[in-house]
Amino acid sequence: MEENLDEPRSPRERVRGLGVPSVEQQIGPWVVTYSWPKDVGQGGPWAVTITPSRDATEEDVAGGIASTLVRKLDFRAASEEWRSKLELVAERDERVGKRQSAELRSLVAVGITDEYLATLAQTYVRLVMTGEKSVIRRLAELVDKSPETIKIHLKEARKRELLTTVKGRAGGHLTAKARQILQSGKPGR
């Protein structure tokens, strides 16, 4: 089933499969996982999952999940840990963004080479996968080009068979040709 990334999604859809930082707590033989949607920066978790830990025995979990376990859930500690993870992710993303920006800008300065287009396509795919709200705008900022120019460059990457197309939505995959260019680091024309 294809998903339109521009349409608003339900809270349940936003929690599922977002690759968001989650927090785990061990409470006795149970592991509690707290999850937040990627686009929410405050408040409590939107999903809590309780499962037996890997080393739990049949006897440990025989009584199942009970109210005594639920009362031990530490939402405050989970939220604090989640906020710390978000800060670390933001710092990492900023460092990666600066590095990607410098690489993309130096490559585009040489011209619209296969190496530049493969690197642009790789960055595009990563931004789509991480749930970036405005992928083209973000790429335009990284490359210091207009969004229209970025669209043209992505179209060219597809034309040169470096990026696949996903019908009706943002995204695509790097082709074997693009992966080879990125691994070799050799500019192509």
Number of DSSP E strands: 3
The secondary structure category is mainly alpha
Low-confidence stretches: 1-8, 14-19
Q: Report how far the terminal alpha carbons are from each other.
A: 36 Å
Q: Order of helices and strands, N to C?
A: HEEEHHHHHH
Question: What's this, in brief?
Answer:
The chain is mainly alpha-helical and 189 residues long. The protein contains 7 helices and 3 strands, in the order αβββαααααα. 49% of the residues lie in helices and 10% in strands.
Task: Write the SSE topology.
Layout: H1 11-15, E1 22-27, E2 30-35, E3 47-52, H2 67-71, H3 75-110, H4 114-129, H5 135-143, H6 147-159, H7 176-184
Helix pairs in contact: 3-4, 4-5, 4-6, 4-7, 5-6
Architecture overview:
This protein is mainly alpha-helical. It is built from seven helices and three strands, in the order H-E-E-E-H-H-H-H-H-H. It has helices spanning 11-15, 67-71, 75-110, 114-129, 135-143, 147-159, 176-184, and strands spanning 22-27, 30-35, 47-52. A hairpin with a 2-residue loop joins strand 1 and strand 2 (30-35). Helix 3 runs antiparallel to helix 4, helix 4 packs across helix 5 (135-143) and helix 4 (114-129) packs across helix 7. Mean pLDDT is 83; it is low at 1-8 and 14-19.
Provide keyphrases for this structure.
mainly alpha, 49% helix, 10% strand, three-stranded antiparallel β-sheet, 7 helices, disordered N terminus, 189 residues, elongated, single chain
